[in-house]
C-alpha cells in the first residue's frame, strides 16, 4: 500500500495532522502502538485528568453550598463510579478519533511503527507480524512520556506517574507529590479534594516555573488554604517501598540543611516529561535530535532527512495538546502545498485546578529580562459583581501591554473560569490588539469576563469599577 502521508502516533498532533491532510485530499495512514487512538492526551492525560478534576471539584463543592443557602448532607464518595465516569469519558473521546479516521478515509493501523528509510515505515502488529508501508512523507508524532527520578522505582500502584495517579483504587491517606508543575498540582488537587493529605515537594523555590511569578504566588496561597502543603527548594533522594508505608527521603537543595524521611501511602512523580523516540529507528534513518533528545525540525517541521517531519511533544516547545494540534494542521497544510503556520507567541496555557490559572504571551519576568518597557493592568474578581454573586471572588486578571504602543504582550488570570476567559486575550494577541481595543470592547454584564476588560482599561487608562 502506498500513501501520501504516514503519521506515526495518534495523539493530538498525529490525529489532527492526519484529519487535516485527508481533508486537503492526501491519502493518509496513522500507525498507533496503543490499542486505542488519541495518544497520551485522550487516554492517560488531558481527558481523564479533567474528568477527575471536574468530579472531585463537584464533590468538594458540596461542603460549600451552605453559604448559598443550599442545605445538603455531607458528600459521600463512590470512587469506583468516579473512575468509571473517567473511563467512559476516555472511551467516548478515543472512539471519536476512530470515527474521524473512518469519516475522512484515513487508514488507522494498530501496531508499532519504525522508520526504515525515507518513504518506508515498518509496522509490527501485536502478534509480531510485520508489514512495510510506502509513503511520500512520514510524520513523527510519538509524543512524550514521564521523566524518571533517579533513586525511585515506579510501580504505578504506590509509586506512580500521572498514569497510576489516574487509577488509584482508594484515596491515599498521605500523598507526596514530587514536582510542583502542572501534573503535580492538578492531580494533587484531585486527591486532596477526595480526602488525601497532600504534600508537594518541589526542587525550585517556587511552583509552576514559567508562569507569571505574581500570579503564581497568590495561587500558591489559595492551594495552601485548600490544605495542600509545599516543601519548596527540596529534593527527593529516594523512596523506600519495602515496608507498609513508603519512606520518602528528602533534603534541601541548598547545602547545609538536614535530610528527613517522610511517610506516604502513595508517591506521585511528576517532574516533567521527555520526548518519546524509542524504537523508531531514528538513528538508523539518520534523523538528528537536539541536546534534550527532541527531534530537530526546521520552520516547516522537516527533520534533517527530507520527507521525514515531526510535530508535538517530540519536538521543542511547550508540551501541550493544542500546540501539537496546531502544528498538525500547519504541517498538513504545508504538505498539501499551502502555507501552514503556528503563532508561538499566542499559545495559551491553563492549569485546571480550582481556581484555574491561565496565561498567554509574556510574563512580567520575561518582559523585564527582555528590557521591554511595559504597563500592567490588574483587576481583582472581588470587585466583580458576578464573582460576588457566585462567591468566586478569589483571584485577578493581569494584562501586560507595551508602554509605547499599548499592544497587549501577555495576559494572566487566576480565578474561576480562567481557562475559558483567557481566550479573548489570545484572540486579541493573534490580531496584535491593544489594551485600548480590549478596554473598548463591550462585555456582557454581569460576567466574570468584565474583569478582563477592566484589567485592559487599567493597563490603557483607568478601570471603572476600582
Ligand atoms: P501523544 O499524545 O503523546 O501521542 C503520541 C502517540 O504516539 C501515543 O499514543 C503513542 O502510543 C504513539 N507512539 C509512540 N511511539 C510509537 C511508535 N513507534 N509507533 C506507533 N505509535 C507510537 N496538555 C494540554 O494541553 N492540556 C491538558 O489539560 C493536559 N493534561 C495532561 C495531563 C496529563 C496527566 C498528561 C500526562 C499530559 C497532559 N497534557 C495536557 C499534555 C498532552 O497530553 C500532550 O502535550 C499531548 O498529548 C502531546 O500530543 P502528541 O500528539 O505530541 O503526543
Ligand atoms: P512540569 O515541567 O510542568 O513540572 C515539573 C516540576 O517538577 C517543575 O516545577 C520542576 O522544577 C520540578 N522538578 C523537576 N525535578 C525535580 C526533582 N528532582 N524534585 C522535585 N521537583 C522537581 O512537568 P509535569 O507537571 O510533569 O508535566 C509535564 C508536561 O505535561 C508539562 O510540560 C505540561 O505542559 C503538560 N501538562 C499540561 C497540562 C495542562 O495543560 N493543563 C496538565 C498536565 C500536564
UniProtKB/TrEMBL annotation:
<dbReference type="InterPro" id="IPR004099">
    <property type="entry name" value="Pyr_nucl-diS_OxRdtase_dimer"/>
</dbReference>
<keyword id="KW-0520">NAD</keyword>
<dbReference type="InterPro" id="IPR050151">
    <property type="entry name" value="Class-I_Pyr_Nuc-Dis_Oxidored"/>
</dbReference>
<protein>
    <recommendedName>
        <fullName>Dihydrolipoyl dehydrogenase</fullName>
        <ecNumber>1.8.1.4</ecNumber>
    </recommendedName>
</protein>
<dbReference type="Pfam" id="PF02852">
    <property type="entry name" value="Pyr_redox_dim"/>
</dbReference>
<dbReference type="InterPro" id="IPR006258">
    <property type="entry name" value="Lipoamide_DH"/>
</dbReference>
<keyword id="KW-0274">FAD</keyword>
<dbReference type="Pfam" id="PF07992">
    <property type="entry name" value="Pyr_redox_2"/>
</dbReference>
<dbReference type="GO" id="GO:0004148">
    <property type="term" value="F:dihydrolipoyl dehydrogenase (NADH) activity"/>
</dbReference>
<dbReference type="InterPro" id="IPR001100">
    <property type="entry name" value="Pyr_nuc-diS_OxRdtase"/>
</dbReference>
<keyword id="KW-0560">Oxidoreductase</keyword>
<feature type="domain" description="FAD/NAD(P)-binding">
    <location>
        <begin position="3"/>
        <end position="328"/>
    </location>
</feature>
<feature type="domain" description="Pyridine nucleotide-disulphide oxidoreductase dimerisation">
    <location>
        <begin position="347"/>
        <end position="456"/>
    </location>
</feature>
<dbReference type="InterPro" id="IPR036188">
    <property type="entry name" value="FAD/NAD-bd_sf"/>
</dbReference>
<keyword id="KW-0285">Flavoprotein</keyword>
<keyword id="KW-0676">Redox-active center</keyword>
<comment type="similarity">
    <text>Belongs to the class-I pyridine nucleotide-disulfide oxidoreductase family.</text>
</comment>
<keyword id="KW-1015">Disulfide bond</keyword>
<dbReference type="InterPro" id="IPR016156">
    <property type="entry name" value="FAD/NAD-linked_Rdtase_dimer_sf"/>
</dbReference>
<dbReference type="InterPro" id="IPR023753">
    <property type="entry name" value="FAD/NAD-binding_dom"/>
</dbReference>
<dbReference type="InterPro" id="IPR012999">
    <property type="entry name" value="Pyr_OxRdtase_I_AS"/>
</dbReference>
